[in-house]
Amino acid sequence: MSVCLCVFLTLAIFILLCLNVIIAPVVYAVADSTLERPCAWVKELKIKNQILAAIGKLFMAIIRETIRAIFITLMLWLLTAIIYPLVILVVGQVFLPYQANGSIMRNLNNQPIGSALIGQVFTSERYFHPRPSTVRYSQGKKAKPTGISGASNLAASNPELLNRILEQANQLRDENLQPIADIIYTSASGLDPHISLKAARQQLTRVAGARGVKEDEILRLINKYSDGRFLWIFGEPGVNVLRLNYALDLQDINRQQNQ
């Protein structure tokens, strides 16, 4: 309805301007040829004509600015919605295909085993364990149905939170591990793929004993799959648990093939 009204008003103004352009000169010519001194209605008509001319100029200016705004909007839409996404897509797929496709890790059979950007649950003694996750890294039946990431949002005084921390700390003491922060407290996202170097070294003896290898062999892998600070300034170094655990499996496969 509003579009039809705008079209109607536009046509009406256009018709008035056309009539003004056609009729006004005729009236002036007739008045000048028949009257020595133009009467009041001729002067009034001239004033009205000047007003209509001003309105016409304003109307045309509005049309010009509207066309310019529509053109700028279309150009911005073309730039931000088509050109920029296509450029980023091409650059990502050509120069950074691994990162652009989610940093998906694959096994020897070219089957996806997970993303290096998202943690996973490891419970076997043969593997390094990640940080606790409120959403259990969205894996299995125990994953929270309320979302694929997030924290518990429990207050520090909440008994449920205190009981979980105490249970986790007692379990670590039973394994002769020092209860440090990143293997007791969950991350804000519940998907953190890293643990600290200290947390990895604490689990080194357990993993080496379960796999029957020397700790130095695993320590080299810990150092290899440690990520430094972002831009060498922000954050703390961390060990990517999925990459480290998969490297341990590959190491065992190579050892078995060489025997």
Structure explained in plain terms:
- The chain has 8 helices and 5 strands.
- By secondary structure, the protein is mainly α.
- Strands 3-5-4 form a 3-stranded antiparallel β-sheet. A two-stranded antiparallel sheet has the order 1-2.
- It has 2 domains: 2-97; 104-258, no CATH class.
- It starts with a helix and ends with a helix.
- Mean pLDDT is 80; it is low at 26-31 and 33-38.
- Helix 1 (2-34) runs antiparallel to helix 2 (40-95).
With strands numbered from the N-terminus, the spatial order across the biggest sheet is 3-5-4
Radius of gyration over alpha carbons? 38 Å
Poorly predicted tracts of residues: 26-31, 33-38
Tell how many strands the DSSP assignment holds.
Answer: 5
Average pLDDT level = 80
Strand content: 5-15%
SSE ordering = HHHEEHEHHHEEH
Taken together, the total number of domains comes to 2
Helix proportion of residues, in percent? 55-70%
Main pleated-sheet profile:
3 strands, antiparallel
Distance between the termini: 83 Å
Computed structural class: mainly alpha
Identify the overall geometry. Answer: elongated
How many helices? The count is: 8
